[in-house]
Amino acid sequence: MTRTCRKCLNEQPIDEFYRHPGGAGGRKNTCRTCFLAAAKARSQVPEVRRARSVYLSDTGKGSEYSRRYANTDKGRARLENSRAKQRESGKRRAYRAVDHAIAMGRLARTGVCSCCGVTAKTHMHHHAGYNEANWLNVIEVCHNCHAKEHQQHANL
To answer: Where are the domains of the chain?
Structure first.
C-alpha cells in the first residue's frame, strides 16, 4: 500500500507516514522525511528559539511564567499554603524514612497484608502516627485494609 506525500509529492510506502488519528487512513499527509525537515526548520525560527530559551531558562528551575506567578499575591499565598501543609503533617518525611529504610535493608516488604493475610501489592501504614519516633513503626497492609484503617481513623 502506498501514499503520496503532500510536500515532496513522492509516492512512498504507507509505513513512511507517521500515524495520526485525524488523518486519512490514520496517517499524516506528509512523509517522515518532510515532517522532520519542517520540524527542524520551525525550531530554527528566532521567535521559537527565544520562547524555548525563556521556557528552559535558569537551568530548569521554571519558566518565566512560573516566576511571574510566584511574585503575585495569589502565587505567594499558594506557595505558603503548600509549605505549611508539608510542615504541619510530617507525612512526607515519614514516607521518605520508610522508603530509605527499605532501600537500605532495615525494613523488608513481604507482600502479605498483616490484617487479612492476602498476598498482594502492599502499603506501609503508619498506624502509630507520623511523629519522628514512629517513622519506622509501620504495618504492611493491602490497599483495601489501608483504606479501612484510614476510614476508622477519620471516624474517631
So the answer is: 2-44, 56-88, 90-155
- Grid coordinates given for 69: 506567578
No. of helices (H) and no. of strands (E), the chain: 7, 6
Report d(CA 91, CA 132) in Å as an integer. 10
Task: Report how far residue 84's alpha carbon sits from residue 89's, in angstroms, rounded to the nearest whole number.
Answer: 9
Decide: helix, strand or coil at residue 108: coil
- Give the amino acid at 93: R
Q: Tens digit of pLDDT for each residue in 28-76?
A: 999 999 999 998 888 888 887 777 776 666 545 556 677 788 889 998 8
Q: What is the pTM of this model?
A: 0.45
Contact 3, 19 (CB under 8 A): no
